[in-house]
């Protein structure tokens, strides 16, 4: 580490900062950077002159605009981010340990007290050192980030072609990094919430100390990663702007070479991850044929997805037969399975997973192409946009593939244009496809359309399709206008089931008030406050939450399952019946005579079903290695049906086997009518209760993150509410919490 005296000598030797436009030697600037900045990034102590010297060097280096300098600064920024994360986590953990030691000290004596005092002294010194280091390291990291922003623009002036090639590579890397970092932030939030909930119930000092340490680590990591994500979003947007500018500066031959390279990476035989990134890159370039090429990518992806989906139907049958043979062999062979039976099962499972990954990948390409198509239209100058816009409007209204039409509608939502707005309104008013109408609502929400608000208030809140009414309620909270309030209050007065909850939630987001679905109280409140009411002014008690997760309270519903209540009258219950559900509640390792988890689940299910009224729709899916629905379709509750389902619960739900979470959720959405390739997009399900005591261990997909992505795809327009229940100590609380929160539901742990 440079001492202050050496640092002063260095400044004297190197002189003041040179301004842009001087003959600045790129190699010299990089040498100066290499001699100082990496050392500071690893230093245990920093002072302000050091940070200022580094800032000047970074500024000099960024003004060279050289691609090599861009790489250098990017590497430094990455190193700074990792060091910040490591030190922040260490500081938070140290603070928790200090508090623990100070709590123990008054009661300690002898050697124990001496050991604690020594630990206390060491920790106080270390945390003080980190506390002094972090602000200066944060400034250094900020300087590197500013350098990245600066050099991104400067590179366009110095070496346009080289800069375009390098920024294209960074764009692809940033696209993957943004997805991974956003995923990490969501994981950290869910994990932190789970640990925070467990803290009050900690029974011993060791358990509490462990939870506090975990909470400190997670909170520190979340703070740093959230800041990283914010910086990456800013940098990504700046690079997009620069890439578009650079493309226009390239010679025609260079433009053609770049487009050819991109198109080569959009072929069907290229891995889906590569196609998804390149189609997004194409969407940000002001190239005249880009929109047409992107539309072709959408069509090809839809075709490939349909082909894979057709294959999956056959492969699932083959896998289910092989699985049934294995289970039969297990029961008849005292827990042993023949080699040939297991080989057939494994072969069928591998092929099923391969094609399933292919189908999911094409879905991701479709989504990326929809985003890119909207960006491509927006990137074109207005004078060049009309012909491309006509083609996309035609795609949205006439293409035979529903996925392509939905993708085109999504793309149109990214463009503020009167023709587009009217075309989307026409789709809402005239289309016979529920799926397209739901997509049009989302696109108009993205445009913050006044016409959408008017249509919701005058007709969509009374549409014959309940899912359209639900979408209208969501739209009125997303495009907030005062005239929506009385219309939503009227909806509460006439709706039944979950839509009362949806209208109540929309009103809460507009007004900051809750009256638990009581139309009389709402009307009384509105009559007293409507004259002075302004959207966004929530000064009364109960003001709306500003957190990312909507503030939802448990409504006083008729149906309650493990404490989660709902007014819904279209409910699907999905229950885990894997072998571990035979274990006693609270501990899967104990052999005590406590109630089994499966028996508790049956009791809760019976109590929930008792809350249904005649005519309400419901069904039950149970799963272990295999997935079994009670009935093929949703069933209307009658006295006769109530007796039938009680016999089914008592006699036919038994626990054995693994935990096939993906296939259970997939079949739940298929039963609901929301399949990946569904044509009608109709559903008699608006709420799912999903229960498990474990983690994914068998099935088509076992990665929790991929399961969440697939549910997001299935539920994107349908918006079925998914409530989750985790039973026992071995379930994945983070996964279940996110499954619920990302699908409008609640999570509880029992």
Write the layout of secondary structure elements.
Elements: H1 4-14, H2 26-42, H3 48-62, H4 67-104, H5 110-158, H6 160-198, H7 205-249, H8 252-264, H9 272-283, H10 290-332, H11 339-379, H12 382-398, H13 402-412, H14 418-430, H15 434-446, H16 450-458, H17 466-478, H18 484-494, H19 498-511, H20 519-529, E1 559-561, E2 564-566, E3 570-576, H21 597-610, E4 617-623, E5 627-629, E6 635-636, H22 639-652, H23 661-671, E7 687-692, H24 704-714, E8 721-726, H25 733-741, E9 747-749
Parallel strand pairs: 3-4, 3-7, 7-8, 8-9
Antiparallel strand pairs: 1-2, 4-5, 4-6
- Total of domains: 4
> Could you give a short account of the major beta sheet?
7 strands, mixed
**Beta-strand segment tally:** 9
Radius of gyration: 30 Å
Q: In terms of structural class, how would the helical and strand content be classed?
A: mainly alpha
* Number of H/I helices: 25
Basic shape: globular
For the residues shown, what is the average pLDDT?
A: 85
Strand content: 5-15%
Gap between N and C termini? 53 Å
Q: Outline the low-pLDDT stretches.
A: 1-24, 539-554, 587-592, 675-681
Q: Roughly how much helix do the residues carry, as a percent range?
A: 55-70%
Notable traits:
750 residues; seven-stranded mixed β-sheet; 25 helices; disordered N terminus
């Amino acid at each position: 580490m440079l001492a202050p005296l050496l640092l002063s000598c260095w400044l004297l030797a190197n002189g003041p900062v040179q301004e842009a436009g001087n003959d600045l030697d790129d190699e010299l600037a990089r040498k100066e950077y290499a001699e100082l900045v990496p050392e500071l990034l690893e230093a245990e102590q920093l002072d302000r002159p050091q940070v200022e010297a580094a800032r000047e060097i970074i500024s000099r280096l960024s003004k060279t605009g050289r691609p090599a300098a861009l790489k250098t600064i990017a590497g430094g920024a990455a190193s700074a981010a990792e060091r910040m994360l490591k030190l922040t986590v260490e500081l938070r953990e140290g603070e928790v340990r200090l508090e623990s030691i100070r709590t123990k000290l008054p009661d300690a004596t002898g050697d124990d007290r001496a050991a604690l005092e020594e630990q206390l002294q060491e920790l106080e010194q270390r945390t003080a050192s980190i506390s002094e280091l972090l602000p200066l390291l944060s400034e250094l990291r900020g300087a590197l980030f500013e350098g990245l922003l600066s050099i991104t623009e400067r590179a366009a002036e110095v070496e346009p072609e080289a800069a375009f090639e390098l920024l294209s590579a960074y764009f692809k890397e940033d696209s993957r990094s943004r997805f991974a970092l956003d995923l990490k932030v969501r994981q950290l939030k869910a994990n932190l919430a789970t640990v925070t909930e467990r803290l009050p119930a900690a029974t011993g000092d060791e358990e509490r100390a462990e939870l506090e340490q975990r909470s400190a680590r997670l909170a520190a990591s979340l703070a740093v990663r959230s800041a990283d994500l914010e910086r990456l979003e800013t940098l990504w947007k700046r690079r997009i702007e620069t890439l578009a500018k650079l493309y226009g500066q390239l010679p025609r031959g260079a433009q053609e070479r770049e487009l050819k390279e991109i198109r080569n990476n959009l072929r069907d035989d290229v891995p889906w991850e590569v196609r998804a990134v390149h189609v997004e890159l194409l969407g940000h370039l002001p190239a005249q044929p880009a929109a047409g090429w992107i539309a072709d990518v959408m069509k090809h992806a839809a075709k490939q997805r349909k082909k894979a989906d057709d294959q999956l139907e056959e492969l699932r049958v083959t896998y289910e037969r092989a699985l049934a043979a294995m289970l039969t062999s297990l029961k008849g062979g005292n827990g042993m399975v023949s080699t040939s039976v297991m080989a057939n099962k494994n072969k069928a499972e591998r092929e099923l997973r391969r094609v399933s990954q292919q189908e999911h990948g094409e879905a991701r390409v479709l989504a990326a192409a929809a985003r890119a198509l909207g960006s491509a239209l927006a990137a074109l100058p207005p004078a060049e946009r009309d012909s491309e816009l006509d083609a996309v409007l035609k795609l949205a209204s006439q293409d035979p593939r529903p996925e392509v039409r939905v993708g085109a509608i999504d793309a149109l939502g990214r463009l503020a244009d009167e023709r587009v707005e009217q075309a989307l309104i026409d789709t809402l008013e005239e289309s016979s496809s529920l799926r397209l109408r739901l997509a049009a609502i989302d696109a108009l929400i993205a445009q913050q359309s006044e016409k959408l608000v008017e249509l919701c208030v005058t007709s969509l809140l009374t549409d014959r399709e309940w899912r359209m009414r639900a979408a209208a309620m969501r739209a009125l909270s997303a495009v907030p206008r005062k005239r929506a309030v009385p219309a939503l209050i009227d909806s509460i007065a006439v709706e039944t089931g979950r839509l009362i909850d949806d209208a109540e939630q929309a009103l809460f987001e507009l007004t900051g008030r809750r009256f638990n679905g009581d139309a009389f109280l709402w009307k009384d409140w509105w009559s007293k406050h409507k004259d002075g009411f302004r959207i966004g002014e929530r000064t009364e008690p109960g003001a709306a939450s500003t957190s990312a997760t909507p503030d939802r309270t448990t409504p006083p519903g008729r149906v309650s399952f493990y404490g989660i209540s709902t007014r819904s009258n279209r409910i699907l219950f999905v229950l885990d019946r894997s072998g571990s559900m035979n274990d006693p509640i609270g501990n899967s390792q104990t052999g005590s005579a406590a109630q089994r988890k499966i028996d508790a689940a049956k009791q809760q299910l019976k109590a929930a079903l008792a809350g249904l009224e005649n005519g309400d729709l419901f069904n039950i899916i149970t799963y272990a290695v295999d997935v079994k629905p009670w009935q093929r379709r949703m069933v209307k509750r009658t006295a006769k049906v109530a007796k039938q389902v009680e016999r089914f619960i008592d006699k036919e739900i038994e626990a054995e086997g693994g935990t096939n979470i993906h296939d259970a959720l997939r079949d739940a959405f298929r039963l609901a009518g929301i399949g990946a390739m569904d044509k009608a997009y109709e559903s008699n399900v608006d709420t799912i209760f999903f229960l498990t005591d474990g983690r994914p261990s068998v099935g088509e997909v076992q990665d929790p993150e991929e399961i969440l992505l697939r549910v997001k795809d299935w539920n994107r327009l349908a918006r079925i509410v998914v409530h989750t229940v985790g039973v026992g100590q071995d379930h994945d609380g983070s996964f279940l919490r996110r499954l619920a929160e990302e699908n409008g539901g609640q999570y509880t742990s029992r």
